[in-house]
Amino acid sequence: MQIKDIIQKIEELAPLPYAEGFDNVGLLTGYPEEEVRGVLVTLDTLEAVVEEAIEKNCNLIVSFHPIIFSGLKKLTGSNYVERTILKAIRHNIAIYAIHTALDNSFRGVNDMICEQLNLKNRKILIPQQESIKKLITYVPKNEAARVREALFAAGAGSIGNYDHCSFNLEGLGSFRGNEDSNPTIGEKGNTHFESETQLNITFAKHLESRVLKALFESHSYEEVAYEITTLENVNQHIGIGMTGELDQEMEEKAFLGFVKEIFHTGCIRHSELLDKPIKKVAVLGGSGSFAIEKAIRAGADIYITADLKYHDFYKAEQKLVLADIGHFESEQFTKSLLVSYLKKNFANFAIVLSNTDTNPIKYF
Asked: How far apart are CA 173 and CA 198, in angstroms?
């Protein structure tokens, strides 16, 4: 088993193209072809976590947060980031970070929050823009079925709860090959007319290389005519934050007590209570002040997130309750998600849940 094999499976859950532009995700240290002895899963990679990996004979750390976030100009051990990286390199331990790629996954961070709260009817709070692409290609009529099925097999043609979606037009195509051409239909130097099917099919942007590979391998033409465009349509299964509903509405203080117990938080900072029952809940793990207005527009009764500043609480405007449960607390179940996912896909391999407490915030 090589590091790249583990990475490939992780990126099926959370493809890196969906990470936010400011983020630093992927393999941060180590070689993809290195043989894996064991995998340690953590929320943060610190020196103590690297020590734990050494102790447990794990040479790959899968971390939610990236230890390298902005550019490093030197590695002298002058701060906790440099010391962590140096220790990992010294002991030949690879570090892989997933962060906002998992935030934007439908089965990622926010789904885990909803799972803990037993929320139903889950929907993405902020669907990601420009995540859907469209392929238009032209295929000999008698080959259209084969090419279409190859594209479906590559993951194209899936829209929400439907797959094998395409649109097909029949027409007459023409081409003429020069003396260096090697046409599979017609003769070089002569204009050829062919009954063709124009095939239109959408796909998630992270599948582009796979879809094009399927197109080229299944198409008979020497030169395949195609075009790819990025659509403005939103993908309801990719994006950050999530909304869901309780089976039964709860009184505000009772719900806050429920949240405090589930997330083992030292306290919950919240906006003014509105004396209204809680039924629809919006969540966003980590720093989520940017989505307050989205939560209001979604009709949420309460918005659970972290890292809210003083003036952020004014934005509630008596339209919902804002609840700051803490950054670590909101994301703490993420590593259990990753461990469960990896164990399911690598049943006979050492996948270890880190027991190092990486929460830098303490409560008195």
From this structure: 10
